[in-house]
Automatic annotation (TrEMBL):
<dbReference type="InterPro" id="IPR008993">
    <property type="entry name" value="TIMP-like_OB-fold"/>
</dbReference>
<keyword id="KW-0424">Laminin EGF-like domain</keyword>
<feature type="disulfide bond">
    <location>
        <begin position="337"/>
        <end position="351"/>
    </location>
</feature>
<feature type="disulfide bond">
    <location>
        <begin position="304"/>
        <end position="316"/>
    </location>
</feature>
<dbReference type="GO" id="GO:0009887">
    <property type="term" value="P:animal organ morphogenesis"/>
</dbReference>
<dbReference type="GO" id="GO:0016358">
    <property type="term" value="P:dendrite development"/>
</dbReference>
<keyword id="KW-0732">Signal</keyword>
<dbReference type="GO" id="GO:0005604">
    <property type="term" value="C:basement membrane"/>
</dbReference>
<feature type="domain" description="Laminin N-terminal">
    <location>
        <begin position="1"/>
        <end position="184"/>
    </location>
</feature>
<dbReference type="Pfam" id="PF00055">
    <property type="entry name" value="Laminin_N"/>
</dbReference>
<feature type="domain" description="Laminin EGF-like">
    <location>
        <begin position="304"/>
        <end position="353"/>
    </location>
</feature>
<dbReference type="InterPro" id="IPR018933">
    <property type="entry name" value="Netrin_module_non-TIMP"/>
</dbReference>
<dbReference type="InterPro" id="IPR001134">
    <property type="entry name" value="Netrin_domain"/>
</dbReference>
<keyword id="KW-0325">Glycoprotein</keyword>
<keyword id="KW-1015">Disulfide bond</keyword>
<feature type="disulfide bond">
    <location>
        <begin position="306"/>
        <end position="323"/>
    </location>
</feature>
<dbReference type="GO" id="GO:0005737">
    <property type="term" value="C:cytoplasm"/>
</dbReference>
Amino acid sequence: HGEIFSHLKSTLSSPRPPSHTCLLCTCGPHNVTLTLSLGKKFEVTYVSLQFCSPRPESMAIYKSMDYGKTWVPFQFYSTQCRKMYNKPSRAAITKQNEQEAICTDSHTDVRPLSGGLIAFSTLDGRPTAHDFDNSPVLQDWVTATDIKVTFSRLHTFGDENEDDSELARDSYFYAVSDLQVGGRCKCNGHASRCVRDRDDNLVCDCKHNTAGPECDRCKPFHYDRPWQRATAREANECVACNCNLHARRCRFNMELYKLSGRKSGGVCLNCRHNTAGRHCHYCKEGFYRDLSKPISHRKACKECDCHPVGAAGQTCNQTTGQCPCKDGVTGITCNRCAKGYQQSRSPIAPCIKIPAAPPPTAASSTEEPADCDSYCKASKGKLKINMKKYCKKDYAVQIHILKAEKNADWWKFTVNIISVYKQGSNRLRRGDQTLWVHAKDIACKCPKVKPMKKYLLLGSTEDSPDQSGIIADKSSLVIQWRDTWARRLRKFQQREKKGKCRKA
């Protein structure tokens, strides 16, 4: 037995003229092996050997697809196929067995004694060879990383029957002048050439967004459709995932690919810039689209900024940015009370409904008594507020009159104290309070008040009918509120704290 690792040429691009050098092996007549490593996967189209000696009587060609770890028969040659390889001679090739090695007695004649040729075409006679691009079976059949030729038996011209047969056999040898392996780099149609990488390994120069030694996978981020071998009609290039510039990685999902009509199956991973979704095509929870920028812009999503008290949650409308407001609250961020509502102190219900205005029979429509001119002097025109008036009164508050009802000789007003500028002895605080005004004072318009209006009230501390409210009378100052007064009243308040008030 003998094994020879071939240093003869493998023509994997274009055939060359046969060499006149002969490789001789006197290893014996049986099982001499010639091995050729191709360095990577190739699609082999033919294997040919030219001999200086007579051609072998029996010979086998094998291929390996895993760099010599395992071997698969490619072709057998023998005058006795059944005896040598347990194969019938010249078996028919069908679609069912086109990936199997056959045995033939052709090319096994002893003649010529020198210069004989054995040529094996990997696709010759294979039924689907004409449609090779669409035949995974034949694509696998022609793939090899190594080729091995085993000379199983040579022609001995009957010398093995002589008494000195051992001496006769020793005088025979195998002599090969040329071994050619024709084919192309296995690049699955995605490269036109092979090159050496940094480690001096032979690899495909991949195109069509493919990668790998055989261009057998899609390069990173190009997983929008599954990898396919290129054909003469279709490049079947790998397609980049559509992540709107918000992701650097993606994966392929076959179910989504099928649902899309086999158009798109990419799923983006780890969307950035506050985006979400299969294509990073909408804003994540807590953000909304800035429609002035394209979805691919890194600032296409803006934070919702929902008010912590007025909003019912922190997730806003993806398109408008509108936050979900609590009852009675309005605004994009839910930061103010809606019309007909007023602010409360409750974080649960920050805006409460303003009670409906009383009917026309309320305080404003009371009939005026005949002696009003002598009873009090109703205010006419615009009243002015100054430090002297401020100091004369026990308290100064901004009120909002909510409703009014008659109670014997009194009018009872429900008011909301908005601001306290002077407290007095009853220690007034913000919130709902009862205001009592004598019926005759209201009738004579001393003071003149209307429900649903805001007023500045400067009054004196007196006992009210229910011992809890405040009283306004003809001596009280009740002026319809102006926002410009707030700053002036704060100044009066500061001066009072410094002891500058002198009661008249």
